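quick one: zinc ion bound model?
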Amino acid sequence: MKHEKTLSDTLANNRRSSYSGVSMCEDDDCLDAMTDNEPQIIETLSSAVTTILGGLGENPEREGLLKTPERVAKSLRFLTKGYRENPEELLKKAVFKESYDEMVLVKDIELFSMCEHHMLPFFGKAHVAYIPDGKIVGLSKIARVVEVYARRLQVQERLTQQIRDAIQDVLNPKGVGVIIEAKHMCMVMRGVEKQNSVTTTSAMSGEFISSPSTRSEFLRLIHNRS
Ligand SMILES: [Zn+2]
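yep, here:
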């Protein structure tokens, strides 16, 4: 518990710093929170990409590469847009009082992220479950929380814990279970490991830790591919 608190404090600090100078979109389905100085950011990133192209021995002036720096810059901004969104605020907008107290599971949530060590994609599926304690949340918001954390530079382990902590903090349910299964292009493309290896991570809280039967029901439901 102590560890979780520290982690969410860190997150809160990170969020505060990434939000400075950012005008957040009020609409919770708005995926493009833009900063006031977006053109400046694109320019800075583009020039860095030009440097990278030169460093690779390419000629950034040749026709095929002329617009590449700007395209890469815009693509990177999209792939990291999760920095400009607040997952806990997003959840808070869709919390309802409800006495349902069985497990709620959203499985096979598609996930695309980028590893912070190589800035290469990793992708796969997230399975998120919780046991309500008087409050439930709109199901689509669970998938959105996965997306917001995934659209940042990540390690799979931290991504898994951040999703658990956001749901735990906002809903205060009897427990949260998160499992992510993903393929990492930094392993596949660089030939470090077998090409088809899948990395599985899990983060649990409450009854998912204290009750073996809850945990095994969670695992059984995830792998029930009927
Ligand atoms: Zn990597």
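The longest helix spans residues 2-19.
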